[in-house]
Amino acid sequence: MTVVDQPPVHAHQDAKTVWRLRLGVGMFGISLPILLIAWNWVAGDKVVLPESMSGSYYTSARNLFVGLLCALGVFLILYRHTKRQDVCTWFAGLFAVVVAFAPTAPSPPQVEPGWVSYLHHGAAGALIFTLGLFCFIVFAHETRRISGQPSSPAGQLRSWVTGALDDFNRDSWSRLYLICGFIVTVSGLLALITGVWPASWSTGWPSLFLFEAIAVAAFGVAWIAAGWKMRADHNLGPAVPADFRDAEPGTYQAYTP
Fold first, then answer.
1. What averages of pLDDT result for each successive group of 10 residues across the chain (257 residues)?
2. Counting beta carbons within 10 angstroms of the beta carbon of residue 244, is it exposed (0 to 12), middle (13 to 18) or buried (19 or more)?
3. Fewest Cβ atoms closer than 10 Å to its Cβ: which of 67, 110, 150, 237?
4. Domain range for residue 144?
5. Residue 20 domain-assigned?
6. Whole-angstrom Cα distance, residue 34 to residue 213?
7. Backbone φ, ψ for residue 19 (5° rounding)
8. How far is 19 from 229, CA to CA, in rounded Å?
9. Could you tell me if residue 189 is inside a domain?
10. By the 8 A CB rule, do 222 and 180 touch?
């Protein structure tokens, strides 16, 4: 087991900046569904709660939805911390921008080219997958002590599953990240099933919007938690609860970015 001092953030971004950025993204994820509903309600739109979050494109919250997604996408593309996080956030940001500018299919009699709708659903699915991946691999990996990595993909997968199970039982930070990743993944799959293969259990209520909102909110919780951990590791504020403290305060678990 190798424990080393926490690696510095890139020179142009100090720890406090990254902490604030993570907190901002987390608040965005949690508040986005609420803001869309509140905007439609304040504007007196006849559709206060659309069928999906993407359906906000055809409501009074259209500009808010597109603007916030673009802002999130640009932020994620420009976000820099570690190599692994840079790759993940770059793709997530790209997918967010595509979702913003390639709207979902409208309700009849309005029409959009079929390829636009396919592009939208593909980008939306990839975005949710990437958000879950961030929780599973990136944030959870920050709390893991690793002495070596297997060379084969199968060996790396077995190592990750074994480490994830160990961390779930030992480390509160990893437990929170993994739970968030699980919620994002399951909610994303339910949203996909509901949107592509609607069934009796998923119709008659805003199931798609709800599943998407849960996925985005869980992602937001993971980012807020990661910011909170960074704040504690760098002594940027009050200490975190005892259950979330590292065994050796002031240290960082070495990993391969």
1. 45 67 88 93 89 89 92 86 81 92 78 81 89 77 54 64 66 82 90 79 82 92 86 63 45 39
2. middle
3. 110
4. 12-241
5. yes
6. 9
7. -60, -45
8. 9
9. yes
10. yes
